[in-house]
Amino acid sequence: MNNNATMVRTSLTVLCAILFALPLWWVAVSALRPENDIFRYLSPLSWGTLLPLNFTLEHVVELWSGPFRLAIMNSIIVTTVTILVGLAICSAAAFALAIIDFPGRNIVFIVMVVSFLIPFDAIAVPLYQTMRNLNLQNTYTGLVLPGIGNGLAVFLLRQFFLGIPKELREAAMIDGMGWFGVFWRIYLPLSVPALISAALILFVFQWQAYLWPLLIAPAPDYKVAAVAIAQFSTQYDVNYALIFAAALFISLIPMVILTGFQRGFSASVASTGGKE
Amino acid sequence: MYLKTFRRSASVIALALAMPMAVTTTAQAQTVVNFLAEAADFVYAPVIEAFEAANPDIDIRYQQVPFEDLNAAIESRVGQGDSSIDVFAADTPRVPAFASRGYLPDEEANRERIEAAVPNPVDQEQVSWEGKIHAFPMWTSTQLLFYNRDLLEQAGIAEPTPTSPDDRLTWEELLDLAKQAQDAGAEWGFTFQQVDRYYQLQALYESAGAGPGLTGEGLLQPDLTNEGWVQTSAWYRDLYEDGIAPRGVSPNQTNDLFINGQVAFFYGGPWTFGRFEEAEGLNYGVTYVPYFEGGEPVTATGSWALAISPHAANPEAARRFVEFATLTPEGALATTESNPLPPVNAEAYEQWREKIAELTPKVGPAIDIITHELQNTAVGRPRTVGFVAFETVMNRVFSDLRNGAEVEPTLQAAEDQLRSQLARIR
User: Fold this and answer.
1) Which chain A residues have a beta carbon less than 8 Å from that of B62?
2) Do the Cβ atoms of A235 and B67 come within 8 Å?
3) Cα dist from B143 to B29, B235, B237, B293, whole Å
């Protein structure tokens, strides 16, 4: 009975996994077949729908020999800098809001919580004007800045910091440690899972950003991958082969990161709910 | 381990952030003209190269924005007074809205030169608003009926060889042939290339004498429930209801249907020649597009113009580039080197037609059809500041009809919605 139940559960799990993987598989296969074959086997469904019967690497080669290579490098640079600077700023802000008692602390916290409820698209145009006044168009700085102060990341880290026993902080301060020492040597080392979660939030925001890079950095040297993919579609023609090839690579990077950090992420999710 | 990585990496942040500032402060000896448009880089590369060779003191920097986002980019950048855009591509139906909002300068001073280079009044109208010219016309578009010779032969249908524009098929005749082709094995009888898009479907209503769907002062009153609109919409709906044309296919997928031999007749434009010519084994011909019996032949037209931003940082250099690309034959021809659309510059068109004439032995007299339609049957989209709102609603209406929605309630709902939306614009 138990064996049967396990088999059913396993079968259902595998079936679900296949159903989720199918669209991505079709994208991967479409990137590896001639352009004219992409929609040829959609109806009726056949082996050709899910297997590249006329295998070709033509689109992958074309993709990497064009401007997409620079665009994905730009995305990696912008995302990496956003994560590093963003973690520094968000964790410091969260530490101040969680540990340091100062007048108006709760009001500042509420403003930050509300800030992540406002859709970014709503503030993109006025923010663009500000950045333009600062002469930050077509710069990495302009691309990175809106991503580093993330209200959700601050919220997450603050909640985690609140769960760290205050006795640790008090003991350190009695021994002569200052606020920065407490933050750097006690709170950050104890908060690695939460930092990973915050980093993933910052990563996703920047990796999938489209409207902001389109506005602030349309010059070819600063184009990011999401914008570069959209440009394979023009008014009269859509180059699905290149779109699928690019989508494959742009998905691989988050996939590798999420797989690599999944333990840290799971630990974070589990421990943010606990009191100890 | 993660924390150590974080700490080490923090030291490179300052350097990473400082780098772009160094790049952007590089000394520039040339005047820079920033050019914003929707086409792929390679489309404008020949004209930019030719212009820079003749004007070494000017550096044209091309910024491509996806087609769907170009108007938003123009509104947010040019509309906000951003001087970092000197030149931009303007979709001609949007000229009235852009001009009325101050995004396009008055180019009346150049009227004589524009009219000399671009003598077709339809093309001049495409860049005008309230009697004034606001941009430089660059390209135009027209329509052809493509047919798959193999599918026609399989059905025993004689090729609709174009002998004269007066002998063109009626829609009634075409759909009979399309059904015959389907009976003989073709998956689909017919499809529009730009399904559900007002751009291509406006001609149906104009051909039936139903009008463009807008009326009144400034074309700001919807007129969708007249008899002609109801009948033509029912015809469009039945095309899909009867299974002659496919549902569930987007405009971007229709080329592939024709290339893969799945459709017998295809209503497209010169922009499709590129992919059709690359497709191995595709045996096709072209003829004049059909019209409704008792009505007039009408073809969709309009394309892109070049405009100088009223806030351009370098307006004089921008003007030199725009005039080169539109008013000189060599510049206008260079804009079509990697682009499938005809130039509106008359001298450049004569040279462009030689290139398209090379297709004649294979597909039929495409260039004669294009020339005839541009000069005799072309009707532009309505010149109104409300066009964007109108087009958005209409594209949805066509999509609903294709999916089987009832004609009269659909048109009535659209008319009510547009009456309210256009009243606000008025």
Assistant:
1) 220
2) yes
3) 45, 20, 21, 19
Query: Are the beta carbons of B24 and A219 separated by less than 8 Å?
Result: no
Q: Is pLDDT at B9 greater than 60 in this prediction?
A: no
Question: What CA–CA distance (Å, rounded) separates B157 from B151?
Answer: 9
Interface test with B, best of A30, A90, A236 (most B CBs within 10 A): A236
How many Å lie between the alpha carbon of A203 and the closest alpha carbon of chain B?
A: 14
Give me the CATH code for the B144-301+364-425 domain, please.
3.40.190.10
SS3 B221: strand
* Confidence band of B151 (pLDDT split at 50, 70, 90): very high
Give, in degrees to the nearest 5, the angle at Cα B75 between B70 and B79: 140
Which residue, A231, A236, A218, is CA-closest to A63? Answer: A231
CATH superfamily of B11-140+302-361: Periplasmic binding protein-like II (3.40.190.10)
Across residues B233-253, what is the average pLDDT?
94
pLDDT above 50 (res B21): no
How confident is the model over B392-418, as a mean pLDDT? 96
Q: Which chain A residues touch B67 with a CB distance below 8 Å?
A: 233-235
Contact A163, B42 (CB under 8 A): no
CA B417 to centroid of chain Cα atoms: 26
- Give the number of A-B residue pairs with CB atoms closer than 8 Å: 111
- Per-residue model confidence (pLDDT) at position A170: 92
ipTM of the complex: 0.71
Instruction: Say yes or no to pLDDT of B27 above 50.
Output: no
Asked if residue A212 has pLDDT above 70, the reply is: yes
Nearest to B3 among A192, A218, A220 (CB): A192
Q: Among partner residues A219, A237, A240, which is closest to B61 by beta-carbon distance?
A: A219
Contact B256 A36 (CB under 8 A): yes
Residue ranges of chain B that CATH labels 3.40.190.10: 11-140+302-361, 144-301+364-425
pLDDT above 70 (res B14)? no
Question: Residue A211 corresponds to which amino acid?
Answer: L
Residue from the list B20, B77, B260 with its beta carbon closest to the beta carbon of A36:
B260
Which CATH homologous superfamily contains domain A57-272? MetI-like (1.10.3720.10)
Yes or no, beta carbons of B259 and A36 under 8 Å apart: yes
Using a CB-CB cut-off of 8 Å, the residues of chain B touching A137 are 84
